[in-house]
Design brief:
Helices cover about 35% and strands about 20% of the residues. Strand 21 and strand 22 form a beta hairpin. Helix 1 packs across helix 9, helix 4 packs across helix 5 and helix 5 crosses helix 6. It has 20 helices and 23 strands. The strands form 6 sheets. It has a 7-stranded parallel β-sheet with strand order 5-2-6-1-7-10-11, with helices on both faces. It is α/β, with parallel strands linked by helices. Catalyzes the ATP-dependent amination of UTP to CTP with either L-glutamine or ammonia as the source of nitrogen.
Amino acid sequence: MKYVLVTGGVVSGLGKGVTASSIGVLLKACGLRVTSIKIDPYLNTDAGTMSPFEHGEVFVLDDGGEVDLDLGNYERFLDVKLTRDNNITTGKIYQSVLEKERRGDYLGNTVQVVPHITDAIQEWIERVAMIPVDGKEGPADVCVIELGGTIGDIESMPFIEALGQFSYHVGPGNFCLIHVSLVPVLNVVGEQKTKPTQHSVRGLRGLGLTPNILACRSTKALNENVKAKLSQFCHVPVENVVTLYDVPNIWYIPLLLRDQKAHEAILKALKLLGVAREPDLQDWISRTRVYDVLLEPVKIAMVGKYTGLSDSYLSVLKALLHASVACRRKLVVEWVAAGDLEDVTAKEAPDVYKNAWNLLKGSDGVVVPGGFGDRGVQGKIIAAKYARENKVPFLGICLGMQIAVIEFAQSVLGLDDANSTEFDPQTSHPCVIFMPEACSAAVLTVDVEFGQLYGNASFVDERHRHRYEVNPDMVPQFENAGLSFVGRDETGQRMEVIELPSHPYFVGAQFHPEFKSRPGKPSALFLGLIAATSGQLDAVLQNYGHASKLLPNGMSNGKPIVKPYQNGNAIKSSNGSLNGVYSNGNGVHY
């Protein structure tokens, strides 16, 4: 096994995750099998209880693991399926060591950071690196490891010590360190300054790690004299100093690395030059070129409660982008804070209220993503009602689907107090209720009849993160009024997909389809949304196999887009779960 370690210096937020993902893409294009590990030095055992405002979205894996959003980047870029163990945290390491200590595994020895914590880190890396993630048998050729945080952070010290030992343990030719650093440009003089990177590398070397490659973030390509200076003071060959300058979109990063022959430097350090081929990035290049020439916009209103930080909905944004590129449209996301649509805002901040409504009414489609807690719920209900009544394409995800059901119950069934027991435990018409039996498990398995929408596949695999479900006792009442529940679990008791057949595209999913969307394989539900907003739904279906291999014939405006659920003829799906985060007063609210 070969290892590539990606570290960061000077400041946080330089894009280590995208850099690590792009390195993986480049190595994969060279014919190598690649896996990834993300190290997060925080004490949490996972990201499940962390606020989106604090750390961005919580990404859910196939095994139910709730992990850092960078693992979403890895999965999207490399088209792999990672496990919860591919995300290492300080909490996980200390927990595993303390469990061993309580069992007496250390035979009475004093348990210390060195060697016990550092050994546990190394053992974890070696074990997880051997797990295949690309659907093939046997381990990958290269494991790309991203160390979160910035060199010099106190919480990173045990990991840095462990990785220094690890580089010695695996030996020369099996370890390559890429240090991502900042080369700022001072506006006053317009000069690229190398001193911050010099200090960062000096600190890194003082901790026992020597970089093989410098990946320098800057606003523009580094001048040759700047590269030479960095080479001299950082003891890195000048050809191993690469620039990651600002680009229109992150799909350019693998191409930037290739054009600067970063793959050759990596392969040389790993002694793989005679094994790997020249990188084949033709599909990646084609996709990037398509993105470059997109002009006709498609405006999507994102109605949520975490709109102040786009990373809170990162996977939703990526899924929308994948679908938009497939439909040859330039994505424009209009951020609408759900609370700004409510009447109380009209009284307290009329300008904010007016602006929110202008954004909503000016959009071609509406997305209500997942979330927890009751803040902004009324605004989401208002957005769902607007989309339903005005025939605006709509996609509700997780809580967004529940919102659509609540709105239908209130507006169409005339049940004014209809609500979720999450928000109103005393409601006389609980159309969404707490059903933890399956969702509280580490792995949620359901059977869903998706029929035509997913190409009549033998099974559909989607990921979940919820504990509340549509009340099965009210389903007949909804269906008699025109709301179809076209996806259910194998028992028929858990509603997975809703659709309004009389609407051009009004769909809700209890699962999170965004987590499995890929640049070359957009999520079916997101592709359907963008196709509907841009008037291409029929064309996409008629050209099934060209614009998309996810949306087959049978889906058209004004007609059912999936076959009705038939008990006993369901499609099996194994999914993730919500770990430890409740929204009923027993857990974490944001």
